[in-house]
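Structure ticket #2291
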Amino acid sequence: MNDISNQQNNENHFDAARLIKNWQHVSEQVAQACNVATKKEDDVALLAVSKTKPAEMIATLARQGQRDFGENYLQEAIEKIQVLRQQPQCKQIVWHYIGSIQRNKTRDIAEHFDWVQTLEREIIAKRLNEQRPAGMSPLNVLIQVNIDNEDSKSGCLPTEIPDLITAIKHYEHLQLRGLMIIPAKTNTDAFARTKQLFEEIKREHPELQQWDTLSMGMSGDMNKAIVNGSTMVRVGTAIFGART
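Resolution: structure written out below.
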């Protein structure tokens, strides 16, 4: 029995009330951080990172109004997407791929997801563009930036972004929306530097009319990220609990 089957067998054993309470608490934290940053609440999207969690947990939050969900593991995600798209209350879900991308994954990602937040190479952009099915809206993409130049982290360096933008903006099946980072735990100004980079790109590329998304901040640092300009926070543990 594969992992997704094990998860589905255990779907009825989670505490739905606690899950909803956790989600509400995180939503309130986002709203409070927006208030501190003098932003409107809807200026910052909450991405619920649901990797390793069963489809029914996602459905529970979707029924509460949660719209955006992030997945790292492709096969697990596809199975959950296929199950949940059969449920009327889950049709509004927007699916974000936030895992690493190998060449052999691009077709499935292009066919099943609404967003990709981990684009770092032109060859991957080219494949996603070519493999996005006809009739689907353009795939929203974020460039993942290795803002602290860590050997252990994925993402392109800031100096590599201009060439990647030049390539992506000509792909008709991709919609370039912004940047995503996972900063070093010891870095205190990564969010501010990324915000500055984001604004510089916006000024230099006025043709990018939907350059509007800065995905940074997770369970432990989302408040700081929002104050420093984040428009999307990626929260998993604080909503779903520890990963299994």
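Closing remark: The chain has a mean pLDDT of 93.
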